[in-house]
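Hypothesis: this fold can be encoded by more than one sequence.
Test: take the C-alpha cells below, design a sequence, compare later.
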C-alpha cells in the first residue's frame, strides 16, 4: 500500500510498512494545495490517536480540522471525501473474502489510513487508479458514502418491511373477516302446502239418454266422456264422412281461411256420380274437367253429404278407394275408435260401422283442426253448379238451450236409421268450451212409397122393389136380389229399391233427443276456482341462531278451470331454491293445475322477506 509522493510524478510512491504507524502532518503550504502535497515527506514518530484534541504527548500540534480528499488504493476500497474529527473503526470483507479491520484517524483535517494487519499472507494488490489531485468524488463516493447509502437503504427497508407486515396483517384480517361475514348460510328450506289434487264439488246431472239406439257425450277439454250403455258397432251412414275429411286434412293440410290445392274432376268421378244419382244417393252436380279447390270439396262433402265428392277426394288422395279406406281404419285405431270399421268412403254401405262413443272421438279429432271446424260450422255454402245451399245439419248456427251449435254431421240410411253428431260452444267467462253429443240408430218415419193405382167403375144397384099386392090376395114375399161382390182394392207397384226411397225429414225423431242431450251436457259444465291471489301455497324456512325463521309462499294470481262435477284437478308444485334474504314478491316457484287438456300455471311468490342475520352475527358465529 502506498501514497503518491509527488503529484507531478505519477507512480512515484512512498512505501509504507506495518511498522510505519505514524503519519506526520504536512506543512501549511502543502495544505493549501488541492490534496496531499507533492514532494512533502511524512515525519516519523507522530501518532494520530483518533481523538483529535486528546493527542498523545510529543505529537505535532494539529491545526483546525479541514476537509480534504483522500485517495486510497486497496483491494476493495474506492476513493471518497471525508471530514473527520476523531477516529472510527470498521470491519470489511475484501474481494478475496478475507475479513480485515481498518482504522481511520484524522489529524489536522487529513484522513490518515492505517493499513490492516491481515491474519494471513498479505496479497499483492495492484495499485488502482484514483482521482487526480484537486478532484473530489463528491458525497456519493467512497466507503463513507456507501455506508450512508446502506444506512438509508436499511432504514427504508426497515420501515418498508414494517409497513408491509402491517398491511399484510390488515389485509389478512380483512379477508378473514370478509370470509366469515360472506360465508353462505344454510339455504332456506322450501315446502309446499298444496295438495296433490282437489275434487270438484257436486254431482253430475242425470242425462236424458235416448230410449232406443245409442247415445254418448263428451267435453274434450275436460277429459270428460259418458255413454248411454254398452255399445256395439252399428251402421253410421254419412257420419263416415267425418273420417274421410279427417284423413284428407291430415294428408293435405289446409290452413284456416285458405282454399288449398285445386282438384280436377275426371272421367271416373263422373261415372261414380252417374251411379249414385241412379241409386238416389246424396250428391252434388259435377261435370268433366271442372276444377274445385280442396276447401270447396270439403264443403260439399260435409255440409251437403255428397257421396260423389267423397269418392273424388279419396281417389285424389290415395289413388283408389280401397287404399283410402285402409287409411281411414288406421286413423280410427290411432284415436282409440276400437268399435269402428269402414268399408267405403261415404257410409252408404251398411258395412261401415261404429259406435256413439267412437263417433265422438272422430268428431273431436276433426274439430281440433281449424279448417274442419270452420267448414262444419257453415250455415250455407256456394258451389259452382249448385249455387248457395244450406247446411243439411239444420241446427248448425242456431241456439239450443242458450248454446250455439257449431257442427257437426248427420246421416241416414234405412239400415242405419237416424244418426246425428252435434257440437256446441259453452262460453264461461269469455272462455269457449266445446261440448259434443252423438246419437245413433234412432227410429224415423217410414219412407213414402210411390204408387200405381187401378180403379174400376162403380157397379149398378142390384136390388129392385116388388110390385104392390093385389087387394084381397094373400101377401107375397120377394127375396132381395144379392149385390155382386165388391171390387178388388187398387194394386201398388214401384221400381225403386226400398233402401233408396226418400223419407220426409228422416231426422224428425233424432233431433229432439240429440238437442236435449246437448243442452243438459253443456249446462253441467261449471267453472271451478283452483287458486286465488294471495292464497297460501307453502313456506320457506331459514335456520340460523338456533331459531327457525319462516316466511309464507303465496299464489301470485287467481286461476280457474272448466270442470264436470266430481272430477279431480291434478296439482303439481315446483319450488326453486331461495337465497337467504330473499325479498318480498320474489318468485320462488309455480303451481300447475291440470284437468283434461286444460292447464293453468300460477306463479308462487314470497309473502315477506326471508330474515337473515346481521354482519356482526355472521362475523362472530358464522
Amino acid at each position: 500500500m502506498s501514497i503518491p509522493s509527488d503529484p507531478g510524478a505519477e507512480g512515484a510512491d512512498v512505501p509504507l510498512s506495518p511498522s510505519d504507524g505514524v503519519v506526520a502532518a504536512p506543512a501549511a503550504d502543502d495544505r493549501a494545495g488541492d490534496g496531499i502535497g507533492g514532494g512533502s515527506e511524512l515525519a516519523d514518530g507522530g501518532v494520530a490517536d483518533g481523538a483529535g484534541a486528546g493527542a498523545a504527548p510529543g505529537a505535532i500540534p494539529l491545526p483546525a480540522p479541514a476537509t480534504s480528499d483522500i485517495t486510497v488504493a486497496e483491494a476493495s476500497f474506492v476513493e471518497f471525501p471525508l471530514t473527520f474529527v476523531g477516529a472510527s473503526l470498521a470491519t470489511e470483507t475484501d474481494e478475496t473474502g478475507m475479513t480485515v479491520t481498518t482504522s481511520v484517524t484524522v489529524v489536522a483535517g487529513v484522513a490518515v489510513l492505517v493499513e490492516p494487519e491481515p491474519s494471513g499472507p498479505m496479497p499483492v494488490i495492484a495499485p488502482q487508479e484514483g482521482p487526480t489531485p484537486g478532484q473530489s468524488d463528491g458525497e456519493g463516493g467512497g466507503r463513507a458514502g456507501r455506508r450512508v447509502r446502506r444506512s438509508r437503504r436499511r432504514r427504508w427497508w426497515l420501515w418498508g418491511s414494517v409497513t408491509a407486515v402491517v398491511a399484510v396483517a390488515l389485509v389478512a384480517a380483512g379477508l378473514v373477516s370478509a370470509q366469515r361475514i360472506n360465508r353462505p348460510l344454510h339455504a332456506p328450506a322450501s315446502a309446499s302446502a298444496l295438495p296433490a289434487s282437489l275434487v270438484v264439488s257436486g254431482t253430475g246431472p242425470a242425462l236424458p239418454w235416448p230410449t232406443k239406439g245409442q247415445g254418448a257425450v263428451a267435453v274434450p277439454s275436460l277429459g270428460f266422456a259418458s255413454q248411454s250403455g254398452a255399445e256395439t258397432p252399428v251402421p253410421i251412414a254419412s257420419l263416415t264422412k267425418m273420417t274421410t275429411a279427417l284423413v284428407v286434412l291430415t294428408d293435405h293440410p289446409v290452413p284456416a281461411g285458405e282454399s288449398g290445392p285445386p282438384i280436377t274432376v275426371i272421367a271416373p268421378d263422373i261415372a261414380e256420380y252417374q251411379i249414385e244419382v241412379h241409386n238416389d244417393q246424396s250428391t252434388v252436380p259435377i261435370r268433366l274437367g271442372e276444377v274445385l279447390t280442396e276447401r270447396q270439396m270439403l264443403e260439399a262433402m260435409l255440409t251437403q253429404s255428397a257421396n260423389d265428392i267423397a269418392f273424388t277426394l279419396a281417389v285424389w288422395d290415395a289413388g283408389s278407394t280401397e287404399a283410402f279406406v285402409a287409411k281411414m281404419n288406421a286413423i280410427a285405431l290411432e284415436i282409440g275408435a276400437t268399435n269402428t270399421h269402414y268399408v267405403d268412403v261415404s257410409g252408404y254401405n251398411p258395412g261401415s260401422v261404429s259406435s256413439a262413443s267412437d263417433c265422438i272421438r272422430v268428431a273431436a279429432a276433426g274439430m281440433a283442426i281449424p279448417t274442419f271446424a270452420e267448414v262444419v260450422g257453415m250455415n250455407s255454402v256456394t258451389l259452382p253448379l249448385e249455387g248457395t245451399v244450406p247446411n243439411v245439419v239444420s241446427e248448425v248456427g242456431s241456439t239450443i238451450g242458450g248454446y250455439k251449435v257449431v257442427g257437426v254431421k248427420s246421416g241416414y240410411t234405412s239400415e242405419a236409421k237416424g244418426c246425428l253428431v252435434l257440437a256446441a260452444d259453452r262460453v264461461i267467462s269469455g272462455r269457449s268450451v266445446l261440448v259434443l253429443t252423438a246419437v245413433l240408430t234412432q227410429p224415423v218415419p217410414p219412407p213414402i212409397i210411390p204408387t200405381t193405382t187401378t180403379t174400376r167403375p162403380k157397379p149398378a144397384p142390384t136390388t129392385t122393389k116388388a110390385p104392390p099386392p093385389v087387394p084381397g090376395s094373400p101377401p107375397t114375399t120377394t127375396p132381395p136380389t144379392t149385390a155382386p161382390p165388391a171390387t178388388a182394392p187398387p194394386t201398388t207397384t214401384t221400381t225403386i229399391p226400398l233402401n233408396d226411397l226418400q223419407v220426409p225429414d228422416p231426422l224428425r225423431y233424432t233431433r229432439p233427443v240429440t238437442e236435449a242431450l246437448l243442452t243438459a251436457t253443456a249446462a253441467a259444465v261449471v267453472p271451478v276456482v283452483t287458486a286465488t291471489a294471495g292464497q297460501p301455497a307453502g313456506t320457506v324456512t331459514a335456520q340460523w341462531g338456533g331459531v327457525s325463521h319462516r316466511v309464507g309462499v303465496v299464489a301470485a294470481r287467481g286461476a280457474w278451470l272448466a270442470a264436470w262435477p266430481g272430477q279431480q284437478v291434478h296439482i303439481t308444485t315446483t319450488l326453486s331454491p331461495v337465497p337467504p334474504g330473499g325479498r318480498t314478491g320474489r318468485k320462488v316457484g309455480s303451481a300447475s293445475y291440470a284437468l283434461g287438456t286444460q292447464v293453468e300455471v300460477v306463479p308462487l311468490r314470497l309473502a315477506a322477506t326471508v330474515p337473515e342475520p346481521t354482519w356482526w352475527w355472521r362475523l362472530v358465529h358464522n
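DSSP finds eleven helices and 28 strands in the chain. The mean pLDDT is 77.
Hypothesis status: open.
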